[in-house]
Amino acid sequence: MSKLEKAALGEPAVAAPSDTDDAFLSVRDLRIHFETDDGLVKSVDGVSFDVKRGRTLGIVGESGSGKSVTSLGVMGLHRSARAKVSGEVWLDGQELIAADPDDVRRLRGRKMAMIFQDPLSAMHPYYTVGQQIVEAYRVHHSVSKKVAKQRAVEMLDRVGIPEPAKRVDGYPHEFSGGMRQRAMIAMALVNNPELLIADEPTTALDVTVQAQILDLIRDLQKEFGSAVIMITHDLGVVAEMADDLLVMYGGRCVERGPADEVFSEPRHPYTWGLLGSMPRLDRDQTDRLIPIKGAPPSLINVPSGCAFNPRCPYADIPKDNVTRTVRPELTEVGERHWAACHMSQEQRERIWTEEIAPKL
Amino acid sequence: MSDEKAVSNPEQSGTTLTKDSAADGEILLKVTGLQKHFPIRKGLLQRQTGAVRAVDGIDFEVRKGETLGVVGESGCGKSTMGRLITRLLEPTGGQVEFEGRDITHLSVGQMRPMRRDVQMIFQDPYSSLNPRHTIGTIVGAPFKLQGVQPEGGIKKEVQRLLSVVGLNPEHYNRYPHEFSGGQRQRIGIARALALNPKLVVADEPVSALDVSIQAQVVNLLDDLQEELGLTYVIIAHDLSVVRHVSDRIAVMYLGKIVELADRESLYKAPMHPYTKALLSAVPIPDPKRRGAKSERILLRGDVPSPISPPSGCRFHTRCWKATEICRTTEPPLAELRPGQRVACHHPENFEDQQPQDTVLLSVAKEAAELVPTEEAAEAEAGGSEEAPEAEAGGSEEVPESEAERAEEAPAAAGEAPGTVASAESSAAATDDNK
């Protein structure tokens, strides 16, 4: 990377205090619905969050909870003919949902970039890795192919690919899974994006390679001071990476807060369920896991009231059947920590400390 | 579960097991020197130009009623191993014995009666069920194939099986696409259990499922084992799941077993450097431990190709402890501690097997990067090149043996001050674990 570019990027923002005004990305009430033959699929139904420069937001949830759709929505990658997108996405003071698609396209790749889960299908098999990185660079920079290729080699080197000058002419299939993921990270970062969205970046990889990739993302974030959104279903990965955490269920956010707090004092039964479902290496062996009963809801017929109520063991605690009729809104349960549950603060606190936490 | 033949000869199995001190329970499956090489053919004449050595000489046994977990990175041959012991693939060499009977080279016809006793659960619940068959047909197929007429008819038995695995028996006439991933996996399990098998080989049974569903299926496998006295071989890449379900665990690397131990020893005090690196790479779901976990061992690069595996110890190209002998001599899988077999010249948490050989290979210095977290970095100011205890086995030999090595090998002993720090950090980490 040239010095000029580094200067243009400015100083990496220092981890800022909790003030939403300085958020780099601010998503407000994002809704993404798809019209299908079976009915309206409400993939994302009112999600709000902020990410600051230099910080990492982890989005967790099961498959079909809307986490990937959210990220594609932020990137403006939904076809307008198919998807109904509403809400606001503010990126560095610019609103994207209502903006001209051409303007958004100019930002994509340059200001915000994405790492996809499966590098084999995200990279074009017909072009060399170098060609694809060069293309990504030349779209946003008017430089010669030679300069762009140099830049590609630089990036491949930066993400830890051995012999980058040689590998730049290799095809994606000649790379191993971990290398391919690195190449894709190089492609995403070639324009020094200020927002990086990583959608399950390590799910297809082995643990040892996963550790390498997570380290790489962390290093690069430190170096460039970008904001990172990390989408995953692996609570271990978010615990290692995320500063803040957003738990999604049925297209909505059920809990949001600083990662430390969400892990130590979760305030939503679904979060408890996720924590109880996973065997953990850092704890003593337990006899049984505590699964969540049932299966994730259909996004066409989301259960009325709280979407989690059919699977929630505590659905009958709030009075008047309110869990089945009224949809709970996010309420503040701690500093910068929100959860959407009908149970009172005290009830949840008691259940967590007395019933759930000891069994984990 | 009536297996007269198996119950009748515990003495005999005792004799075959003389060396294995941890042996209780008889051996159901015994594998010796098992190999599978897939030929690579090239050219017009399809001449064989090489072979992928997917499984290259492994020995282990599975005892009745236990669960053996098999872990390793993709490409280490664990799935091939699963297919060899169920005889879905023909072994290139070695021997597979099931209940004392050699089944290595049985023909398809000869194998058929055995298929009742050995069943398999597959990874992908979407491709392992025929979409054009109803659940009733799928789960009932084993009865038809084996010519078994269960009491009360096949339909009744299938419905019983469905309720055993937690599905609604009324779903008998539904098709696979009407079920979710977790439910499909239950159907696969019901099919595997239909004929009361003795051994169930599960290849990544939960890796395609969501976390919450994963827990349901893991619990189901647990319950079934208790109720039916099943023996499992569970192949998985997720170390936390494997720890949860297994009694003993085999760690595979490039077609070989590098460590085979009971669960407690393996996770508390892994001896093979690879096991240790693997364990330290697992992300821990607790943000507060980001600092507490003293260090991670970050292996460089990828697994070498099984077409031409490295000489000597196959891990030597990525191992930070590798010395000359690792390149030349393959370490045997030896029982260093009761119930813990390791193939390594310089094991962790144990005395060095080749103390005279101390000069590190040059690759070893770059093979793995130790990534200290910020807090740990301060404590580790010495900057040890060796791997201090990330997982803190709580065994005292560790720091000693490392100190020994450091003294004896001034060449490799830039880390002499670091060794002290590593002892401290391991002590600290032990405290943490408590």
UniProtKB/TrEMBL annotation, chain A:
Membrane topology recorded in Swiss-Prot or TrEMBL: Peripheral membrane protein
Main location: membrane
GO biological process: peptide transport
Record's GO cellular component terms: plasma membrane
Domain ABC transporter: residue ranges: 27-275
InterPro entries with a match to the protein in the record: AAA+_ATPase, ABC_Ni/Peptide_Import, ABC_transporter-like_ATP-bd, ABC_transporter-like_CS, Oligopep_ABC_C, P-loop_NTPase
SUPFAM superfamilies in alphabetical order: P-loop containing nucleoside triphosphate hydrolases (SSF52540)
Any one GO MF annotation of this record: ATP binding
Subcellular location: Cell membrane
One Pfam family recorded for the sequence: oligo_HPY
Keywords linked to the UniProt accession: ATP-binding, Cell membrane, Membrane, Nucleotide-binding, Transport
Keyword hit for Nucleotide-binding: yes
Keyword S-adenosyl-L-methionine: no
NCBIfam families linked: oligo_HPY
Family: Belongs to the ABC transporter superfamily.
Protein's UniProt name: Dipeptide/oligopeptide/nickel ABC transporter ATP-binding protein
Originating species: Streptomyces curacoi
TrEMBL record, chain B:
Family named by the database record: Belongs to the ABC transporter superfamily.
Ranges of Low complexity composition bias in the record: 372-396, 409-434
Alphabetic keyword roster: ATP-binding, Nucleotide-binding, Transport
GO MF, one annotated term: ATP binding
Disordered as annotated region, ranges: 1-20, 372-434
Gene3D superfamilies noted in UniProt: P-loop containing nucleotide triphosphate hydrolases (3.40.50.300)
Protein name in the entry: Peptide ABC transporter ATP-binding protein
Organism (species): Streptomyces curacoi
One of the GO biological process terms: transmembrane transport
Record keyword Transport present: yes
